[in-house]
Amino acid sequence: KAGVTQTPRYLIKTRGQQVTLSCSPISGHRSVSWYQQTPGQGLQFLFEYFSETQRNKGNFPGRFSGRQFSNSRSEMNVSTLELGDSALYLCASSTPTDSYEQYFGPGTRLTVT
Amino acid sequence: KNQVEQSPQSLIILEGKNCTLQCNYTVSPFSNLRWYKQDTGRGPVSLTIMTFSENTKSNGRYTATLDADTKQSSLHITASQLSDSASYICVVSEGSTLGRLYFGRGTQLTVWP
Fold it and tell me: Is A45 an 8 Å CB contact of chain B?
């Protein structure tokens, strides 16, 4: 069974631009969560989607948004990029029968210059 | 305020030695506590998940303990190997309908030959 995949793996953008990251969960998983990881703050929860609906949201500004498609694939978008948005963005999917267990993708390394 | 604190921040040990990582939390209500291992440049991988009623769980050379009364957990690594070099992250799930996750900042473990 294929794991969680994220594209692209690496991305360089300039301040003010916007970016869209993609996450494909493990087949059969309907919940997708997004996290931001920086050396200073560690892992921080962005939002969670389940069956195309945002079920949970962290404390991030409105520049961070996401969506989930009917096939459970998810995208997150960051508009008006700031230098502080440079981070590893991780996506994780959960099984339909065991929401405790999350499977993480390899992440997208975003660098904002 | 719900928080997860990990100690030490970093640790260096020699191959073959044992070590113990600590996690203290204030998350309430409590649902479960997880330990993840994250290799550099990769997404976290789950090691153990413990609910309120469990006070110890093992996964190979990794043994996690949980004291729900004192809100402390530890991860013990036995006979360390070079491949154990990684960041170990403690995650506590809130016991509400949202099930929000709270992350520690991790302990960076380096195993030297």
Answer: yes
